[in-house]
Amino acid sequence: MVFTVYNSLTRQKEPFQSLQAGTVRMYNCGPTVYGRAHIGNMRAYLFADTLRRWLEYRGYAVQQVMNITDVGHIQADADEGEDKIEAQAKKENKDPWAISRGWTELFFKDLQALGVRPAMIYPKASDHIPEMLEMIDGLLAKGYAYQVDGDVYYEVGRFPAYGRLSGNKVEELDAGARIEVREEKRHPADFALWKSDPRHLMKWKSRFGEHGFPGWHIECSAMSRKHLGNRIDIHTGGEDNIFPHHECEIAQTEAFTGQPFANFWMHCKFLQVDGGKMSKSLGYVWNLDDIRARGFDIRALRYCLIRGHYRAPLNFTWEILKESVSALSNLDDLVVRLRNASRGMGASASAEDGLEEVSDLIAEFESGMDDDLNTPRALAALFQLRTAVLEGRLGVSAAAAALQFVLKANSVLGVIRTEEANLAAEVEALIAARQEARKRKDFKESDRIRDTLLAQGIVLEDTPQGVVWKQKG
RNA sequence: GGCGGCAUAGCCAAGCGGUAAGGCGACGGAUUGCAAAUCCGUUAUUCCCCGGUUCGAUCCCGGGUGCCGCCUCCA
């Protein structure tokens, strides 16, 4: 099987191939740290995490880089010379550096809570000003950029491929009424590489002046180049990054290096809430604490976010999150069942039974993931595996093989509770006591024990083969 | 105005030319001391609407409608 991915650049699915055999160099667009990341942002980071995990499952060593944008960008009313981080700093009456530091820490905590594996490095824009200036100098020298007083702009017209990723045409962009025409620009679509403004709080000295700061797009070009080299395999981001951000990155990097930048561009669609856009004014912008405040495990959110394909819009409601809890606990249960069956309990009489079915389902899981990370298909294969154990179609060998597989599959999905709880001794004693009580028809006592265990999160199940226990939720 | 995506059961969500996966929920029955879990059965004659191509369309083409994204910071 070949891992096939949808490449935004070519608008079609292509077999994935890395530049260097066995290694994947991947850059993920990360957060701008001026506020709390919400569950929509999480979808994008989880998508990158799933991609990384699947590549690892397929045997690649993945060099993953995710940027932290701590410099901030100019807001719509650029006349103010203010960016989002500075605006937040003024609002909170704090130092902008403290703002970005605080949100960065929270960002990492949120990722950890979601079970996202850490990237190799999380470069900060503010640590890469020299690298950005180096590229800006190079672009000026090659004639792709021009200077107007203390500002430097990228001249879009000099890069013929500009618009290839987004499908936008420079002439059409011109027609769009929403681009603010700035007199000093040669073309309205030209974008800033460097800006000068003494009022800016986060500023650096350069040959363009005492008080300057970088444009938004240049940081990713500079940081991916520094940490992954001139050419990379995959670049990811949310669908909103396609234009202008990624379009501009391509223009900058390729003009500077003279080489193709990323071979594969992958973008995930937005998460919707109640079937509509996540809207701050409607109060629909949830973060991890909101999920917790409603009594949900973050694990359930992770399930909720991978239950749909990354390239289709996904809807979020509290009802759906509740459904996710049930579905996920059945996946947890799958592991318990397989573990029991692999030890003979509930297994089919013949040890070899079900081996073929298990290998078919493994193939189904893998071909789903190979098909542009089709997590819903992969999940469906797992649920079918559950039906197979419950219906007693798996023998001891098949159950053991299936268990191994589910553990491996979970190294990609990262949602299932797979560890075996180790309070077995006490539980076994209580279960035995309950069985004694049931034998005596002392149901008051047996129910009391059952309730006691339930209060500890242990659910008992009376089966013809005996009593099975498992952890709840 | 330009560019792109999505529309499948009560709620989610795969499939994308050969006659509708999977999950959650619901209902009926079995099992149980009672539960839970589990088992059996039922839950879309049909895939937003209208045309067209085809032996055949949820899947292709044309036209609508609705929602989402980008063109301005945004996952």
Detailed description of the structure:
There is one protein chain. With 473 residues, the protein is an alpha/beta fold. It folds into three domains: 18-268, Rossmann fold (3-Layer(aba) Sandwich), CATH 3.40.50; 288-413, no CATH class; 424-471. The protein contains 15 helices and 15 strands. The chain has a five-stranded antiparallel sheet. A four-stranded parallel sheet has the order 4-3-10-11, sandwiched between helices. Strands 1-2 form a two-stranded antiparallel ribbon. Helix 7 links the parallel strand 10 and strand 11. Helix 2 crosses helix 3 (96-114), helix 11 (355-370) packs parallel to helix 13 (396-413) and helix 14 packs antiparallel against helix 15. The longest helix is centred in the C-terminal third of the chain and has 25 residues, at 318-342. It is elongated, with a radius of gyration of 27 Å. The relative contact order is 0.11. The model is unreliable at 75-81 (pLDDT under 50). The structure holds one RNA strand of 75 nucleotides.
| Percent of residues in beta strands | 15-25%
CATH class of the largest domain: Alpha Beta
- Structural classification: alpha/beta
Spatial arrangement of strands, main beta sheet: 5-6-7-9-8
Helix content: 40-55%
Radius of gyration: 27 Å
Shape: elongated
CATH architecture of the largest domain: 3-Layer(aba) Sandwich
Compute the average pLDDT: 90
**CATH-defined fold name of the largest domain:** Rossmann fold
Number of DSSP helical runs: 15
Number of domains: 3
How does the major sheet shape up? 5 strands, antiparallel
Tell me the number of strands: 15
SSE order, one letter for each helix or strand: EEEHEHHHEEHEEEHEHEEHHEHHHHHHEE
Q: What is the CATH H-level superfamily of the largest domain?
A: HUPs
The poorly predicted ranges are: 75-81
